[in-house]
Design a protein that fits this description.
By secondary structure, this protein is mainly α. Helices cover about 55% and strands about 0% of the residues. The model has no long low-confidence stretch (mean pLDDT about 80).
């Protein structure tokens, strides 16, 4: 191999998005709305998933 052998630092970051997004950020409110909507849709979606799992 030619030249210097420089090792690239790791790009993997083991941090939760919860630690990166400030408590007052608008994404937190959007996530609550999305979670509520998805929980209402869950029964309908689980029936569809069971159909395609066969």
């Amino acid at each position: 191999m030619r030249g210097e052998n420089t090792k690239q630092s790791s790009m993997l970051m083991l941090m939760s998005p919860e630690t990166r997004v400030p408590a007052t950020h608008p994404l937190r409110a959007i996530k609550k709305l999305a979670d509520a909507a998805l929980s209402k849709l869950s029964p309908a979606v689980s029936g569809i998933d069971a159909t395609y799992a066969k």
